[in-house]
């Protein structure tokens, strides 16, 4: 049986990294193979350029950085797909939804933003960690990178909500770490309890979404 492809999305400092780590423990406790991935992956040569942009040391046009974020997904998708097909449950911290939400929040056309990621692997489940601005601003390190200001983040949140489709579950991320994880696990268990899964497909944004 193939693995599940689960994505966690949200604004900056929504708690995605902590929650992905806890979710991996949940899989391991059930003797299921589980690996974590993260976008942007800052370790590749494209990722190093993205990192310089995010830290403010390299200027790039809005279109150019958007294409780099997308290319960073395309350069890694074969390896992610083969893991899922080989039975590894994959939990991915940010994906194409972040790409479209962050760039369209700058005023670029959302359909253009989505088009670069069209045909990527479609997740089985997208867990959107929804936080109020008040909660976000209290989180550690808020304000350290490009994009990390409340006004921009609230635009990003609005754009995220435009991207919801049938694979999405909205998680109230303002609760405690344990409460948020419990809500996440409920959705994951529903999938884990299925006897079989439809084949994973490279059809993200190829339908009517
Ligand atoms: N980001 C992330 C984008 O603008 N586009 C993308 O496609 C992705 C994957 O990068 N502010 C933004 C969101 C974050 C920043 O993410 C880095 P993280 O999760 O803090 O490493």
TrEMBL record:
- Cite the entry's keywords alphabetically: Kinase, Transferase
Q: What is its EC number?
A: 2.7.4.9
- From what superkingdom does this record's organism come? Eukaryota
Protein known as? Thymidylate kinase
Which species does the entry assign this protein to? Entomophthora muscae
